Amino acid sequence: MLTDEIKAKIQSGYRQFLDYKELKPRQGQKQMIAAIANSLTNDDPDHRLSVIEAGTGTGKTVSYLIATLPIARALDKTVIVSTGTVALQEQLVNKDIPELMEACDWDYNFALVKGRGRYACNLRMEQCLDSAKARDAGVFNFENDQQFNPNAQTESLYREMWDALEDGSWSGDRDSWDTHVSDLEWRALTVDRRQCTGRRCRFVNQCPFFKARGDMEESDCIVANHDLVMADLALGGGAILPEPENCIYICDEGHRLGDTAIRHFGAECRINSTLSWLERIPKQCKGQTTLFAKDETLAEQLPKIESEAENLCDLLAMAYPVMKDYIDRSEELDSSFRFSHGDVGTTIRDIATQIVKHTSTWLGRLEVLEDTLSDALSDKQYPVAIADIEVFYQQAGSWLSGAERLLMLWDRLRKETKIGEVPIACWLKLDVLADGNLDISINASPIQAAEILKDRLWGSCYAAVLTSATLRSLGNFNALQRETGIPSSSLFLSVAGAFDYAKAASLKVPSDAAEGNSVEQHTEYIIDNLSSLIESNVGTLVLFSSKRQMEEVFDDLPKDLTKFVLIQGQYSNREMIRLHKERIDQGNTSVLLGLASFAEGVDLPGDYCRHVIIAKLPFAVPNDPLQQALAEWIEVNGGNSFFDISLPLASLRLIQAAGRLLRTETDEGTVTILDKRLVSKRYGSQLLDALPPFRREI
């Protein structure tokens, strides 16, 4: 129940914030605060979930924090704000939350928490500074057979990082390092949960990861991201973050939650890369046998670990031609094959059963090895130098992680889908590696996140808020419910943003536009007409659903236009936006050509974006194996995959793309959609009606 005391705290906080910022109350913001406060204090657990679409300009961050923080403290719960991107995490912690605390004169503590892979490991860095030792430890040889040979410049970078850690000028967080660090350079500096020696590490008091965890334990509010939340839930909850039943989750950028869950709970195995990794293990075992000869447990386990690795090599070598045969018979142009209804057939199931059997045995032996090495780290009488134990512990940890991934994939392949059960999507892909060799990747993934989130999040947490500027598609929350498993008993609310859409912007569909599914004709139309749509001395954002079409259009544009164009892939997204803004600030014309990542999350207020041009309706790529498997399952169960999946998803993406135009209350401009289907197809009116109420010029 919402007590008078909590209500007064929320109301006074909101008034103080408005006074501090010299703002007037916003109707949408007041609605959102009240809805969240009432939901969180509901006595019925089934009614403590709220889904709130808050249009741009609502001020949703302020709304959910002002409503949630006082209630969480009164209930002795921890607030977990989960974002879709690290960029929003940084914005919340470095700007939004401190500003709110100052405005309201509140004393809530908060912590930024990221996955282990975002933090440098002191021990790894020490090893990397001694390259020979690092190579012995396998630091520069990764599980997917990527190899990395650091040069003098890289070693200089590691030395600079080490010094910055030592003098306290750097926290060890990748995102706070000033200069560019490649993924391979960074990966050598990190460990996963299996490679980390935890409290036994001699660097534990300086460890960036454990320092962040220490901050978390003292916090009222933890700012995480969807990937980290999924990692915690995959471990049962409470392994990385506090126990779900003691938490109030706020899932900001909530439209990304389902895709994140599917990606996180998917599994993959590259056969030849895994074989290369496994084939190195017997040699690595032999390299440790002499050093650890006095440890009877290790002396007994190492030959058995070798033997099981060899057994797995034989089984994977047996699997390769079977998988290759499926790809060779496939009609797909991209050298892939999807198993209908997730049924991989008897032959693959039999191989998978054997791989699971041997991997399970191997995993058990590796856990004994890790436990033994863990004990050795704290045994001052152990007859091996601590640095050598650390190296072997990390190596054993990488074997364990690899074994767990292997088990996850093949365990899914060995199981038959039961009648009425949602199938797993299974597919194969022939990959050409950097060295020109071929490999086959095997993938198994849930086709929907609904059951995962229902069991692990909505059914486990104390309360939750799912919010974003775009959650509805085709004017309702049906698709979101189907994708995320949000119970029907939840509160569903859409609050208007701060814009007068009809006054600020117009929506145009040229009468002579081509239909987006007539690819050649449509591409030719864009090339012929884009120049006339570009306004001088302001910014234009052109959004494509197809990389090939974007590149074809760019290649055939008149040269007097291409000098104003920045195309995605030419620079990093961040650099593209910087160059674009620089041109506009200098009074020049600038045009951005981008794909899906520019259709959401890109903020270009004022003259930086006066015109958004959407090349075609953003239907999903038809050869995506996950979408194919989901469509197949819906059709088998009597549904219509176009109206149940494709159209709602296109609606959501179209709303997000159109939302790039108005970012502040003073913005104005035009959204132009170059796809005749919006007016020629029966479903076009549904897509139009779901868009913001722009002034229509159709």
Q: What is this structure, in a nutshell?
A:
With 698 residues, this protein is an alpha/beta fold.
What does this structure look like?
The protein has 698 residues and is of the alpha/beta class. It has four domains: 4-109 and 219-262 and 450-495, Rossmann fold (3-Layer(aba) Sandwich), CATH 3.40.50.300; 117-193, no CATH class; 266-446; 501-697, Rossmann fold. It is 50% helix and 13% strand. It has a seven-stranded parallel β-sheet with strand order 3-4-2-5-10-1-11, sandwiched between helices. Strands 14-15-13-16-17-12-18 form a seven-stranded parallel β-sheet, sandwiched between helices. A four-stranded antiparallel β-sheet has the order 6-9-8-7, sandwiched between helices. A hairpin with a 5-residue loop joins strand 8 and strand 9. Helix 12 (271-289) packs antiparallel against helix 13 and helix 19 (519-533) crosses helix 20 (547-556). The model has no long low-confidence stretch (mean pLDDT 94).
